[in-house]
Amino acid sequence: MLSGTVSHKPTAFQARVYAAVRLIPRGRVTTYKLVAQYLGCRSWRAVGQALKHNPYAFTRLAAVRRQGLVPVPCHRVIATDGTLGGFEGRRGGAALKRKRALLAAEGVRFQQGRLVDPAGLYSFTV
Questions:
Q1: Which domain holds residue 65?
Q2: Domain with 95 in it: what CATH number?
Q3: Any idea which residues carry the catalytic annotation?
Q4: Is a pLDDT exceeding 50 seen at residue 1?
């Protein structure tokens, strides 16, 4: 997953998800459900699956930039209940620690596993 090149060609749906997630500003988060609603999609799980296969993730930033691509900050998407949700296709362990660290570096705080300030939740404008 952390290889030196990006070779995955996204589907049309994945491309729409990645474009939406690129709108989330640094220091803010949104939910899988809000991304789905913005896209007119009823399945936030489909959004999660698209992000699970994100070839432009910040964890691959060097490879993404080297190829002149725009990164997709999938770490800024959390579960509707304010928890971290998943990351890199996992729901725990080192992957979630990386997600929490990326968000902490952007000023997003979690306490007891939940978003501290839900007012900081990013809502897409239509």
A1: 12-109
A2: 1.10.10.10
A3: 74
A4: no
